[in-house]
Write the structure tokens for this entry.
Amino acid sequence: MNKKPYRPGPKRPSNATRPRGRNRQMGDKNDKDTNAINDEIRASEVRLVGDNVEQGIYPIEKALKIAEEQELDLILIAPQAEPPVCRVMDYQKFKFQQRKHAKEQKAKSTKLVVKEIRFGPQTDEHDYNFKLKHAIGFLKEGAKVKSYVFFKGRSILFKEQGEVLLLRFANDLEEYGKLDQMPVLEGKRMTIMLSPKKPGGKKKDAPAATDGADQQEGNTPAEE
């Protein structure tokens, strides 16, 4: 017969009863994120929080009794605190709130696509309008737009012209995107970044595209 492993902690008095609100599902016992509840809590005293309870530090037996009187569970929520912190509430409601919060956090951390659009320092009007149209489409789809002017060889002499081009680009996209940073020169690239604006407001028509224009796009996932 296998012996049960020794678990240090205060012994419960023989007349101590388990709160009637205890309703842990069997599957929860294998969940590494499961909080200890009721007689699983191995502390001599705890700090009590929750609705309809007088917050403070109580012996574990008293805290269990308070939870039992309300037909709720005593849930360990901060085991590393001194003393550990417990909440009095229904365990299934507690787990539901945890799952809801985790889902909300996951939604906030969704990946955002960044589209790259490249210009030369002397981009012609047809090429400019072609890329402007694509940038509008990207921003409408909710992607960020990273636009840059690439200076090849002696074209770095036209960096002021490249800055003017990028500022014009940002201005033409102001109805669709917000400029995150002014033009920044890094090596042979001068770059701006635009974030999509929230839907709403009247948008102007995109300029017509011209065939044969040279365009380069990039797909770089980035955490928001």
